[in-house]
TrEMBL record:
A Gene Ontology molecular function term of the record: transaminase activity
Annotated region (Disordered), positions in chain: 158-189
GO terms (BP aspect): amino acid metabolic process
Top-level taxon: Eukaryota
Name of this chain's protein: Aminotransferase class I/classII large domain-containing protein
Key words, A-Z: Pyridoxal phosphate
Family (UniProt): Belongs to the class-I pyridoxal-phosphate-dependent aminotransferase family.
Classification via Pfam families: Aminotran_1_2
């Protein structure tokens, strides 16, 4: 019997997660394991840090034993995350993000993963007809997180080919309408701008002067500024040895800037929304904890809080992270994680560069951005997709495809290295075979 229309128009519009979702299901059903499933799929395409699994499971067990209480069985003491978690988060942010104004628990709204926070922030700030600027390439999931339910469009702006993405101020200044074919001819009012620092997919830390440039640009064009800093504590650049140096000199949170003082021009901090979460730096995608900080817009926080029951963090995740963020072991945890990221990164970076692929300099995060265009003779999007399909179907290796990040030209891939070494080596071995990537005399690094 026909019921007429089956689905809403809404659900059929917007970004189609297609390729990624299908691959995700296949990998989940047939994951490679050196002894129990040696013929399985090697997943090097998901942005996750699997290098801290043992430690996190151990910490979680202990936290649940000592901290879970009957209050955790109710809705708790706040609908938008427990007071306990917000206090722990404020303490963590004050220590690790060096905010110029101290973060208070009331400045924070938490939800079940950062994707959720982005969806709710977009719902709260923007109308469906509006656009949000973002530098290309950009994290593919933003199309889902910002746009899927809210109707807004990300307006991609590019940097000139072969220029490192972050050496200039936002291109939006020069091309406020965006360059994407899909966006041509659309008359959207641009009301926001996204900064992703450290950046997905390139793994670059954005220099302080450019973070400042984004703030200034947002102010001058009356835009909401969304600074996604989910990889903030995964900076591993080899040159910085001590944690203090990394914290002090390398990564600059937008929270750290006294924009008015540094630019000599006004800056309304109510437009600044900083995003963070536990998924990446703590290797805890599955715990689903997203964090949004706004220090100067109580009305925005009130409106977000009104929706938070839709995506409240579950009590066990709240219990575990309240304990971890306040624990004395925290700095050791982050230090070990960074060191493991650095070792895995160096291995993969060398592996690709001695095979003649152009590897982007990467400072942070669990993945690396590699240009295999020249090496494989890729000149079209179809060729890029064909290599990707061959790798997945013949080689049973999944890496991420540049096109999904709106990269500037075909041939880029994002490779996750934060997986157990045996998995990594198996994946690289299969790539060598399928892609014919033999060691070449030409070793290439992108500056
Ligand atoms: C830049 C960025 N923002 C947000 C997210 C979403 O994170 P979560 O797992 O907390 O939803 C991701 C996940 O890959 C990401 O890379």
């Amino acid at each position: 019997m026909s019921t007429g229309r089956s689905f809403s128009t809404r659900i059929q519009e917007g970004a189609d997660p297609g390729l990624y979702t299908k691959a995700f299901v296949k990998i989940a059903n047939d994951p490679y394991h050196p002894s129990s499933n040696p013929g399985g799929i090697v997943g090097l395409g998901v942005a996750e840090n699997l290098l801290m699994g043992e430690e996190l499971v151990d910490l979680s067990r202990r936290a649940m034993t000592s901290n879970l209480s009957t209050q955790d069985l109710s809705y708790g003491d706040d609908l938008w995350g427990s007071k306990r978690l917000h206090r722990a988060l404020a303490g963590f942010l004050n220590e690790w993000f060096e905010p110029y104004e101290e973060v208070q628990p009331e400045h924070i709204i938490t939800s079940a993963g950062l994707s959720c926070s982005i969806d709710q922030l977009t719902y709260t700030l923007f109308n469906p007809s509006e656009g949000i600027l973002i530098l290309r390439p950009y994290y593919a999931g933003f199309n889902r997180d910002f746009c899927k339910r809210n109707g807004v469009k990300l307006v991609g702006v590019t940097h000139p080919p072969s220029t490192p993405s972050f050496q200039r101020r936002p291109q939006a200044e020069e091309q406020p309408k965006g360059e994407d074919e899909e966006e041509q001819g659309e008359d959207r009012e641009v009301r926001g701008i996204v900064l992703c620092n450290p950046h997905n997919p390139t793994g670059r830390v954005v220099p302080r002067s450019i973070v400042l440039g984004y703030c200034d640009f947002a102010q001058r064009h009356d835009l909401q500024l969304i600074s996604d800093e989910i990889y903030a504590q995964s900076v591993f650049s080899s040159s910085e040895s001590s944690m203090h140096e990394i914290r002090g000199s390398k990564f600059t949170s937008a929270l750290n800037l006294d924009v008015e003082k540094e630019t000599g021009r006004p800056f309304n901090r109510s437009r600044l929304h900083v995003l963070y979460g536990m998924s990446k730096d703590f290797g805890a995608n599955g715990f689903r904890i997203g964090v949004l900080i706004n220090q100067d817009n109580q009305e925005f926080i009130r409106l977000m809080a009104g929706m938070s029951i839709f995506s409240k963090i579950s009590a066990p995740a709240d219990v575990i992270f309240s304990a971890l963020l306040s624990s004395e072991y925290l700095s050791t945890y982050l230090l070990i994680s960074r060191e493991r990221l650095r070792v895995a990164h160096d291995l993969v970076e060398t592996w690709f560069s001695v095979r003649g692929c152009t590897v982007y300099r990467c400072d942070a995060g669990p993945f690396l951005w590699v240009d295999m265009g020249d090496r494989l003779g890729i000149t079209t999007w179809e060729e890029e997709a064909q290599w990707h399909t061959r790798l997945f179907e013949e080689g049973k290796v999944y890496i991420s495809l540049g096109a999904t990040y709106k990269s500037e030209r075909p041939g880029y891939f994002r490779i996750t290295f934060a997986v157990p070494e045996s998995t990594l080596l198996e994946g690289l071995g299969r790539m060598e075979k399928i892609l014919g990537l033999r060691i070449s005399s030409r070793s290439t690094h992108e500056p």
